[in-house]
Design goal:
By secondary structure, this protein is α/β, with parallel strands linked by helices. The protein is 39% helix and 16% strand.
Length: 314
């Protein structure tokens, strides 16, 4: 019910596989799809924990540089056995993959027999923009798209709960892969959110939190833009959805050092370079605002801007 309402995915209970986190679901998929020793196209920059989960099961990561619309399907290779992507809110840069590109990606996967791993980690949250269809709901998606969702953003990361909807050709292999990987969700943790969904509490919860996060995002983005105004090569991106934005930094600036300086000022962020598959690529700071009260936005933005200005000044 939740997935049909928020993500346009028609699903029956038997389609769902409940697992203890997205990393676990990714490992299960790698085993079920036989990705050991095979190429997996992966967003670059991209979610490093998912990348590590795939390599743990023997997959060979082939980085694909994302653009302003996410992962370009034309850069996929015929030798790719699978592709990992975050189309609802690319992690970390925050772009939303357009409908035409989603259809192109699914068409390409269908034609080549490629598995598409769709990590929809925070697709429930979007601001002042229309909803876009999940890859799983695109024509042909049921045959090639493995949809991953998580409770970590909508409820709490401490639940350690995710859901996997495998493509039809992999359904028979998933149970065996769960056993091989030793992954299983806590039954109590799984039943509680189910009741929360069934009685409508999750719908009300998401409506409340969306209002809260929209206000926090607006206050933080406004403060961050004002405090970094005039700094060449510095911009705020990825603001349309999700629970984080990225402060892009000038090429060549050490975002690890900037993050360390900001932490000394009381603000902890993730440097974007840790999400890169190699040394080359964009630099920036991944700034989560879900727990940032509007009243603290100015102080936090000031600390971040101070660290950036110090780094630019050398």
């Amino acid at each position: 019910m939740h997935l049909r309402r928020t993500r346009g995915i028609a699903v029956i209970p038997d389609d769902l596989v409940i697992l203890p986190g997205v990393a676990a679901a990714t490992r299960v998929l790698a085993v079920a799809a036989g990705l050991d020793g095979r190429d997996v196209a992966f967003e670059d920059p991209g979610y490093h924990r998912a990348r590590r989960a795939l390599t743990t099961e023997g997959a060979r990561i082939r980085p694909v540089r994302v653009d302003d619309d996410g992962l370009p399907p034309q850069l996929l290779a015929d030798t790719d056995a699978a592709v990992y992507c975050t189309p609802a809110h690319q992690y970390p840069l925050g772009s939303r993959m357009p409908v035409a590109r989603r259809a192109e990606l699914v068409d390409r996967a269908t034609a080549t027999g490629m598995l598409v791993i769709e990590d929809d980690y925070d697709g429930e949250f979007r601001y002042d923009v229309s909803a876009l269809p999940a890859l799983r709901s695109v024509d042909g998606g049921r045959e090639c798209v493995a949809y991953l969702g998580t409770a970590s953003k909508i409820l709490s990361p401490t639940l350690r709960l995710s859901w996997l909807i495998p493509p039809d050709p992999l359904r028979a292999k998933i149970s065996e892969a769960v056993s091989v990987c030793g992954e299983g969700a806590n039954a109590t943790s799984a039943l509680a959110p189910s009741a929360f969904i069934d009685d409508g509490s999750l719908t009300r919860h998401l409506a409340r939190t969306a209002r809260t996060y929209r206000a926090r995002r607006a206050a933080f983005v406004d403060a961050l833009r004002r405090r970094t105004d005039g700094l060449e090569g510095v911009s705020v991106v990825g603001i349309d959805a999700g629970l984080h934005v990225v402060l892009r930094l000038p090429d060549g600036l050490d975002d690890v050092a900037v993050a360390a300086s900001a932490e000394q000022l009381g603000v902890r962020m993730t440097p974007m370079s840790v999400q890169l598959a190699g040394e080359q690529g964009p630099r920036g700071l991944v700034c989560g605002y879900a727990c940032l009260p509007e009243s603290a936005a100015e102080e936090v933005a000031t600390a971040i801007a101070t660290a950036v200005r110090q780094a630019i000044a050398g």
